[in-house]
Amino acid sequence: MTVVLPDLMQKPVSGLAHVADDLVLMAETAAIFGLSDAQATKLRAALLAGDAAAAPELARLGLDAVPLGTPPDTEIHPVRALALTVSQTCNLACGYCYAAGGSFGGADTRMDWTVAKGAIDQLIDATVPGGGVKIAFMGGEPMVARDLIRKSVTYANKRGAARAIQVGYSLTTNGTLIFPEDAAFFARHRFAVTVSLDGGKAVNDRLRPDRAGKGSFARVAQRLAPLLAHRDRISLGARVTVTPQNLDLLQVVDDIAALGFASVGVSPMISSPTGQGALIGQDFAQLLAAMTACGDAWMRATLAGRSHPFANLATVLGELHRGSPRSHGCGAARDYLAVDAAGDYSACHRFVKDPLGAMGDLESGPDDVARAAFLDARTVERQTPCQTCWARRLCGGGCHQEVLHAGRPACDFVRGWLDYGLRAYGRLSAAQPDWFDAQA
User: Is residue 28 located within the same domain as residue 100?
Assistant: First the structure.
């Protein structure tokens, strides 16, 4: 299927501001202001004429056209979130896997207790008493190492309590190895659990087979009941990796929600170590059409007072409302690191065994020099073509791992999605402003 969406896919127009319906987003500050129809029409025309024409029009409206700032002084924060890659192996064989089948391109291996304990000690010891930290259990498939997860949680709780530090936990899993006693453990410790699924049975089985080539959907569906039974104490959501083979997102979201998920988030596959499953070219137009269709469904439900599982629009609306401009797309290397089975630190869980994201080891601790250099090089002020993009402070330059390995094939899609988000923000702010108070 070929989809042409010139009105949705967004080329960069101005580095100063962007108009969506009767809202203007100031590019450098991420502040949003309302306009009259006449003001919006005039400013849109000025932006199309170039920044030299746009700056005076913005000034006439009382809006300062703040230029792109200089790169900020790099601040290294204590690590507040740590991904423990407890299992560098997996019982599934998803062709697009960022972890190359779970092993990150090496031999199948698991983290031992010495590594996990050392990583937890360094995390807790670097945290000021009274603070909080988060530990994410990742893989591969982390449930292959359930005994280590349990031992790590018990130990981290004890170490945290001794220093008045609150420890929170999360787990990303394919869902095939969850037992009732696991769900009870997650509930007891208030885990956030994300289950990776790519659609209904036919779609998921094609994209997420096991190592013998058999589908995994039925096993996941069978294992969900204990997690769903503890939804009052487990923050449960599903995550969809979007490839060219599951772009019918309305159906994908509906099929996954039918399993009992109240939250379904989608994430495009842009960088694949195997070369399989990555979106290219016209795929992004289809992705944007599918996401806006899901967004429309979410908006209809929300305005009618009903819940809807599509999480992406709710996320972007919350970010727009907060109005916090970014210099980076996420906390990787800043206050979030990953530790692999060998005890090596990386910028995030996607950089495990990747020299581009190497950040020290347990023996010497996180390498703050490497962290600072990484963050300084990746700040949005230094990225091309971010400097001239109106969306730069919303996306923060994108995922570091994807940009370093795949470049920026998705920028028009990202701008299109954020433009849609701005329009949705204006609509929801006018029709149901209390929604934002409930998200605070």
Answer: no
pLDDT in tens, 13-25: 899 999 999 999 9
Beta strands 235-242; 264-268: pairing state: parallel
Q: Is residue 155 included in any domain, yes or no?
A: yes
pLDDT of residue 70: 80
**Are 193 and 265 part of one and the same domain?**
yes
Q: Are residues 180 and 231 in the same domain?
A: yes
In a domain, 428, yes or no: no
> Tokens 């869902």 appear where?
175
The greatest distance separating any two alpha carbons of the chain, rounded to the nearest whole angstrom, comes to 66
pLDDT at 165 over 80: yes
Reading the block at residue 428, the tokens are 């929801």
Are 123 and 160 a contacting pair, CB within 8 Å?
no
How many domains is the chain built from? Answer: 2
DSSP readout, 364-383? Answer: TEE-HHHHHHHHHHHSGGGS
**Identity at 424, one-letter amino acid code:** A
Task: For residues 113 and 28, state if they share a domain.
Answer: no
pLDDT in tens, 35-67: 999 999 999 999 999 999 999 999 999 998 887
User: What residues pair up with 33 in beta bridges, in sequence order?
Assistant: 24
